[in-house]
Write a structure and sequence with these properties.
Length: 478
């Protein structure tokens, strides 16, 4: 199954899309990676969805990635004794840690770490930014606030604190249980919510211990401030525009999206753009023109993948949403301007053998009009460097590791095939040519550019570039 696009598609599974028949339809429509949202559903629900995906993978013979998205620390107010209250502009309102139901003057904020992080002048946004409070006095146990923007406030509404670093782990007790379960299942990616510092990633990476890739969700101003360090430590990034658009001025989200994608591209780390991409398709069979433009712009920016959330998890038209995203990606990548943008934004190779070989492969493939670039990879690092080049030629990533193939399903431009590692040079060329033909990337008489490493099967040893003709018995090379 060859995709006619390089940008990948992630779809969230949920009540509208968990049956085996629906999962298969979504995959055929274009889904490369399925997301399990641990903010909703039981472990049994996720186990059933995981098994469905793996059964489909076995049936199709194509590696499919699975992303487990952890909920993270949700900061919420407590309950109110007599239902929702109206907060008036300019009024005082108290946040405390008294679990007694609130009223017009106060409510519980049951998060000691949050209370300890508040200072005079700290802004608090409630209910997705609909209400705004400003701390005017605090003693680390209570916070007296002034209502800047009032409105109705009801039980357990969320609280965002954009201009403060909250000294709390992004892993709650629930997240730790979910993480253990997701790793036990065998997911390929773990998405960590509300990352603020590189230390947050270090904590989870110790637990994961290489069993899955770790994706940092960028949705806090503190994460933006520490972006370089986070990019260096993360295995992938997500532009989580939902909470990011609440925590920072909404007009800054487009430029932040471009910055995050650029840094990820330069580092050779996969990056995902998420939230409200085709939001109207939750209840409509076609998207708005603005949504189509939004998806296309993320692709022009150079994202590795675009993601559907409620559109596929709970919407009325999940297959149509995926199909729409698929045709948007295909059309965008056919535009001559797309190639111009990719070439202009091309990251300079780093001073490593792998980058030198990857850059040379791109140049050679362009010069000889190669049908494909074929890269042998064990850990996935060689394929990631090839994808970093954002070349025009398709890239086949050949790996003996199904785990690696599944993880690479997230990455721009890679078509992953599980196969035994090459035994020698002749076997290396023969496998590359045969698989290029079998996967319909090259026809007899066309050439492929091959990247590999000697000794064969040694991770990170890319040091060979070979040009081969497809379909010749002698497997003659140049």
């Amino acid at each position: 199954m060859r995709r006619q696009r390089k940008t990948k598609i992630i779809a969230t599974l949920g009540p509208a899309s968990s049956s085996p028949d629906m999962v298969e339809k979504l995959h055929l429509a274009g889904v490369d990676v399925f997301r399990l949202n641990f903010s909703h559903g039981s472990h049994e629900d996720h186990k059933e969805r995981y098994d469905t995906i793996r059964n489909l993978e076995m049936h199709t013979g194509r590696p499919i990635g699975i992303l487990a998205d952890l909920q993270g620390p949700k900061i919420r107010v407590g309950t109110f004794e007599n239902g929702p209250v109206m907060l008036e502009d300019g009024a005082n309102f108290l946040l405390d840690m008294n679990e007694k139901p609130g009223d017009q003057t106060r409510v519980c904020l049951p998060h000691p770490q949050v209370m300890a992080s508040l200072e005079t002048g700290t802004r608090l946004l409630l209910d997705d930014g609909k209400l705004e409070l400003e701390v005017i006095e605090t003693d680390n146990k209570t916070a007296k606030c002034k209502v800047i923007t009032g409105g109705k406030l009801s039980d357990r509404k969320g609280v965002n604190i954009p201009n403060a670093i909250v000294r709390m782990s992004p892993l709650t007790d629930k997240d730790r249980r979910d993480l253990d379960y997701a790793l036990e299942l065998g997911v390929d990616w773990i998405a960590l919510s509300f990352v603020q510092r590189a230390e947050d990633l270090a904590e989870i990476k110790k637990i994961v211990a290489g069993r899955a890739g770790v994706m940092a969700k960028i949705e806090k101003p503190a994460a933006v401030e520490n972006l370089n360090e986070i990019v260096e430590l993360a295995d992938a990034l997500m532009v989580a525009r939902g909470d990011l658009g609440v925590e920072v001025p909404i007009q800054k989200v487009p430029s932040l999206q471009k910055r995050i994608i650029r840094l990820a591209n330069e580092a050779g780390k996969p990056v995902v753009v998420a939230t409200q991409m085709l939001e109207s398709m939750i209840s409509a069979p076609v998207p708005t023109r603005a949504e189509v433009t939004d998806v296309a712009n993320a692709i022009y920016d150079g994202t590795d993948a675009v993601m559907l959330s409620a559109e596929s998890a709970a919407g009325e038209y999940p297959v149509e949403a995926v199909s729409t995203m698929n045709v948007i990606a295909e059309e965008t990548e056919c535009d001559a301007n797309y190639r111009i943008v990719m070439d202009a934004a091309h990251a300079k190779p780093e001073a490593t053998t792998a980058d030198a070989i990857s850059a040379a492969a791109l140049q050679v493939a362009s010069t000889i009009k190669a049908a494909a670039i074929v890269t042998y990879t064990t850990s996935g690092s060689t394929a990631l460097r090839a994808a970093r080049e954002r070349g025009d030629a398709p890239v086949l990533a050949l790996t003996p590791s199904l785990k690696t193939a599944r993880r690479l399903a997230l990455t721009w431009g890679l078509h992953c095939v599980r196969t035994e590692d090459a035994k020698n040079f002749a076997d290396m060329v023969e496998k590359a040519c045969n698989i290029s033909f079998k996967e319909k990337f090259a026809r007899p008489g066309e050439r492929v550019v091959i990247m590999a490493g000697v000794p064969f099967g040694t991770p990170g040893s890319t040091n060979i570039l070979r040009i081969a003709w497809v379909g010749e018995k002698t497997l003659s090379t140049n």
